[in-house]
Design brief:
Chain lengths: 235, 319
């Protein structure tokens, strides 16, 4: 049971809102020590895994490109482009991106997306722009809600699209694991059974995006300085 | 041959530039803390492959202490005004999207079509991690195209990268720290302890209970580990195969496919999946680092319920 001390540290640390980087490092070292390893061995294990997972950070190479383009008005342009589409709202922009992200991921094109590559430079500014065109100026809080939703759509789209593609990591992991246990399965069969959940994901999150539009509209009305409700409060 | 190592060196050089720009920024009172943090991180990319594991581990710990006790600050970047950006946006129009789109499209094309390309009898690109290498190469091409098109001051891309890296801050390093934590958890056998606890204490007497325990177990374990791939072997060996499949006769394909997707529901709901949930909050400059998770929780819970229903309906009915 002592092995689980790392989980306890993580849960308590995150709950107390301590710096997650510190919490995770302390949890790792504590878990290593209670498992009977010496301090040198634990630090080495931690260092080795950190170095081996450097590939997850390569996405940051895109920042000079994004920064340079933002400097030249990329967000402003994204904002303006979406404004030309009369029917655009934040929810509809994100619904369209959800559909594209799921469909491309299902074809194995998971690199056609991502928070640094697509959401920050294009999807989030378009969703914000659409909300402004639909409901007028938005507050910083509303802007944050729209951005968080843009990031969420990228995740949900890729998670519940990629498993429909037969050569994706998770399908291969399932196949490999079952083979070790003496069971042979076809990747295409596994991929086929990812489809019902993918449809549910699109429906569930699509409805939530439509509800987001309603909420944004309500907030915009409530925040309007000369809205009748506000005027009525004044003596 | 273009190797992953080359891309790491590129990343190391970018981080070195971020550190140098920070150290020269005397308007940021925390400039030395920022420079130390990014400088150490740069070192792990430039020479990380040659360092002894203990040295790498020690560097990581120093970096964590710098970020958590020293606290990173944010400098001032000389950038364009809103009016300048509006004018530039009008001048360049839709062409501004070209360099942005080069990145994902280039990544896809390079990882698909250069896989088999040969040069002097050796593969052009190291096939291991080809997507990561393709991403790195595409960013270089996008940068070159953008520079040629817009002709900004030579240092502008690095200055802007410094601004963005500083706004992401420590979150940039969190996914790697979590991977390291996962490795320690695996070595210490944390997964086996949890699977045994789940199998011992959860009520598993009926097919529905077993299905629910497996799906919820996948989600919970993913929430703890931050990764459905780590949860899958443990929970499937602990509950999925012995109970749902063998004892109650569930279809192994349906059970394992939907089991994995139940894990993905967990990924939506945990700060431990930092690259999906915490990093974008930092990247989009959200004050609440949990804002993305908060948006995703209702969808995660509803889809988990949907997965349990789907598994229960289909896994036992297929002849």
């Amino acid at each position: 049971m002592l092995t689980l001390i790392g989980i306890l540290i993580v849960v308590v640390g995150f709950a107390l809102r301590l710096n997650p980087l510190l919490v995770v490092t302390v949890a790792g070292i504590a878990t290593g020590l209670v498992s009977g390893r010496g301090p040198v061995e634990v630090v080495s294990l931690f260092g080795k895994a950190f170095i081996e997972s450097r590939y997850v950070a390569i996405v940051w190479l895109v920042l000079p490109v994004i920064g340079m383009l933002e400097r030249a008005g990329l967000k402003e342009r994204a904002h303006e482009t979406i404004g030309k589409i009369q029917a655009a709202t934040a929810g509809r922009v994100l619904l369209a991106y959800l559909a594209i992200r799921q469909a491309t991921a299902a074809m194995g094109l998971i690199s056609l997306g991502g928070h640094a590559q697509m959401v920050r430079p294009l999807v989030a500014p378009m969703a914000e722009g659409a909300a402004e065109h639909a409901n007028g100026p938005i507050t910083d809080d509303t802007r944050a809600v729209i951005r968080a939703n843009a990031a969420a759509v990228d995740n949900i789209g890729v998670f519940f699209g990629e498993d429909i593609f037969i050569a994706i990591g998770s399908i291969l992991l399932i196949k490999g694991f079952l083979e070790q246990n003496g069971l042979t399965v076809e990747p295409a069969e596994l991929a086929r059974w990812a489809i019902p959940t993918a449809i549910c994901a699109f429906l569930v999150h699509g409805v939530r995006l439509m509800l987001l539009d309603k909420r944004l509209k309500r907030e915009a009305v409530a925040n309007r300085p000369n809205a009748p409700d506000n005027a009525a409060v004044q003596p | 041959m273009i190797t992953l190592e080359l891309i790491y060196v590129l990343m190391g050089l970018l981080l070195t530039a971020v550190a140098i720009i920070n150290v020269r920024d005397d308007q940021n009172p925390r400039r030395f803390v920022n420079a130390a943090f990014w400088g150490i991180y740069a070192t792990t990319f430039l020479v990380g492959s040659y360092l002894p594991d203990f040295v790498s581990g020690s560097l990581v710990i120093v970096m964590v202490l710098v970020a958590s006790i020293g606290k990173l600050g944010q400098g001032v970047t000389a950038t364009t005004t809103r009016e300048e950006r509006m004018a530039s946006a009008r001048r360049w129009g839709g062409r501004l999207f070209i360099p942005v789109l080069i990145v994902p499209i280039g990544t896809f094309l390079a990882s698909t079509f250069l896989k088999t390309a040969m040069i002097n009898g050796a593969p052009l690109i190291e096939t291991k991690q080809i997507t990561v290498i393709s991403l790195g190469l595409s960013t270089v091409i996008a940068l070159a195209v953008g520079m040629f098109m817009l002709r900004p001051p030579a240092m502008a891309p690095l200055q802007e990268a410094r601004r963005l890296m500083d706004s992401v801050g420590w979150a940039a390093v969190l996914p790697q720290s979590l991977a390291a934590l996962g490795a320690v958890f695996a070595a210490a056998g944390v997964g086996q302890v949890i699977a045994k606890l789940a199998a011992d204490y959860l009520p598993l007497g009926t097919p529905l209970a077993a299905v629910a325990a497996y799906a919820v177990g996948m989600a919970m374990f993913t929430i703890i580990m931050g990764n459905a791939f780590a949860a899958f072997p443990v929970m499937t060996a602990g509950i999925g195969l012995p109970l749902v499949v063998q004892q109650f006769g569930g279809d192994v394909v349906i059970v394992s496919a939907i089991g994995m997707l139940s894990g993905f529901c967990g990924t939506l709901m945990t700060p431990m999946a930092a690259n999906f949930n915490i990093v974008p909050a930092a990247l989009l400059e959200l004050k609440d680092k949990y804002a993305v998770i908060k948006v995703q929780i209702p969808t995660g819970v509803l889809l988990l319920a949907a997965n349990i229903t789907l598994m229960y309906l289909f896994a036992f009915s297929r002849a």
